[in-house]
Amino acid sequence: MKKLLLICAALLMMMNAKAQFPMMGGGNAAPKVTGRISATILDSLTKQPVEYATVSLINTKTSKPVNGALTDAKGKVSIQNIAPGEYKLVVGFIGYTTKNVLVKTTPEKPDNNMGNVFLSGSASTLNEVTIEGKKNVVENKIDRMVYNAEADATNAGGDATDVMRKVPMLSVDMNGNVQLRGSAVRVLINGKPSGTMANSVADALKMIPAEQIKSVEVITNPSAKYEAEGSGGIINIITKKSNAEGVSGSVNASAGTRQNNGNFNLTAKSGRFSANTALGGSFAYPQETKTSFLNTTSSGDVLQNGMSDWKREGFNGSLGLDYDFNAYNNLSTNAKYNRFYNGGPSGSSIFENGVPNGTIVGRSDMGNNNLDWNLDYRKTSKKQGEEFSVAGQLIQGRNTNEFVNDQRDASGAPLRYTESDNVGKNREYTLQTDYVYPFSKTVTWEVGAKGILRNIRSEFAQNSAQDFDYDQNVGAAYSTIAFNLTEKIKFKGGVRGEYTEIGFTNANGVPVKNDYFNLFPSAVLSQTIKGSTTIKLAYNKRVQRPSLAYLNPFLNETNPYSVMQGNPDLDPELSHNVELGYSTFIKGSMINASLFYRNTRNVIENFVTDGDIPGSTLTTYNNIGTTQSFGANVFASYNPTPKWTLMTNVGVNTYEIENKDPNRIGMHEGTYLNYNLFLRSATAFKGGWNLELFGVVNSPRYTFQSKTDPMFFYGGGVKKDIMKKQASLGLNLLNPFNRDLHIKTVSKSGESFGQTSNIYYPLRQISLNFSYKFGKLKFTEKKKIKNDDVKQDQQQGGGMGGMGQGK
What is the pLDDT of residues 312-324, one digit of tens each? Predict the structure, then answer.
């Protein structure tokens, strides 16, 4: 590993040296003083942004064009690398009169923000032009599907789990575990990992208020530039940020019957320096969750009928600083802290072979504290598209798991008393560098290297001999090339090499080392047909390494009859993915369809066996075998009227596993079908009123040992814009006609052993929401570290594995 890190460091230094001097093909050296000219192009009547407007910069002395660009979805444009001088900004778009604006920059002030530039409709088309400023809820891009959560009014008052349920191609179970096309995924926040995600995806999602989420990107075929983590792909949650001159921000609050959220975002920007800060909190009322567990074991049957009364509370805060030294060099840093608590009392009645046999009264308390810190440097050049970056990241996390159980027999006499305290610590250091060089407008080359040093430690208060210390170091390097085969056929391909070094001491005190090297190729071939229709063929190889929740050997006896434990001997999953995609736009409607095939080796699934107590079960994790999955996904959006949108997403995939251990017995070694369906209707009315309705259906879910019954969610929301659209009031409903959602899971290993669980989860939510924005908001995304190489917990979210059930 040391050799590999030395190689990565040498590559970093060579690339840094390259970045400090004129880059190949760049021609003359960059001017000593350059700046940028920016503006916001708006319609003079509606005050809405004009997207794709052409902006040209002309030197007034020579009358020759210097540079140009197109406006983005918010009407923003920024023209880089401009030498001091006097220019004319020429703005044009179909249906508008061309606008000319004089602009001047100086060596003392090389940057000039023109502010708002208004376009007036031409005489012949003014009455025909209508611009809608509302962003589409779903956008289909060349390499990803984007769900714009901020454009969906029904998200207010919920958390990230509620948002995920409505994202195309995703399915979410009652624990909050997320799958993409029936396979596990890597979840990032703003393009980078989170210490909370490394422990439990489900708990981390519950910590993020829905109002903080700008969009969710679903990346099914990541290139070699991305970490190879995620059998199904990558989910990237983009949170709301602003970067406007002056001071701007937003306040959001919601109060409901199940959960309460509040968050505050503030940005201050002056010249080349900007600062972003965010504070958020959430609180879920304790609500009774009815549970029932029936264990069928070799020593007899045990039935538990119980209740839990758990609450959830969370806090998060962040501070980001950003500084442009000049038009070519940028330095940014961001620190984020998360704290989350989930727990409360629980109790159950015990029946052994149908005969009452006492009670269990207990309490569980689980908490997470995580700090993520990033430092990023980015350098561009006179050559458009050329970029060099170096980034460092520190993740430090601490999670606790405490429980107490007092079991008494039918007469009330003490029978068994259990308590335990486990502290898990996760520390991660990352250094990476990336370089992008465009040989031409149609040929781009990328190369980069990355090193990750991880240490996972689990400390047991009751038995220090069982303390678990696990080191995982990863070194990686990649290269990609993108070019046009023809005017309409594009290709992007690459390869990534990753070396993994693992070391720990097993339960017998024997040191264990497990080093391996993998190559991960990827390729995408796309063709544009008639301008608005695209087909693509993609292939990639992916990996998933188990994280702390899968590895931790801590014996979680929150429910003594349903014990959980990690497995430090797990191997990583390896998968091959092939996808054929089709997308088209027809008169305001969009259709995106895909067919895919996935083959995954060393699949990690939970596995149930006999526990130490008669009638109890032990759930752990094993590499079950190899799975094959064929599937299809269709997303469609249709506008019956300009202000009414109908949207649907249908996904199906097969589940088929080849068990590698003949001594292991499960329920499902054939071929089974999973599906999910999402329906949405959104209507805008006069006076700033909006009405939205949605429904989600998830089919039964299969693993080697278990089957989970289908689930159905539904809800709606109404929102009214107030205060000249600077604020809004809303009312949201989730499952208003049913307080509880009954979910049943059956796990079996042969005919004589198994577990049946019934959970009545309090899902109903009625919430009142308020949102207020001040200042000018411009959302930006900067390149960050992406550690996408660790399989996250997809089974233990919210403590749903034990008698104490989270909400």
Answer: 898 989 898 989 8
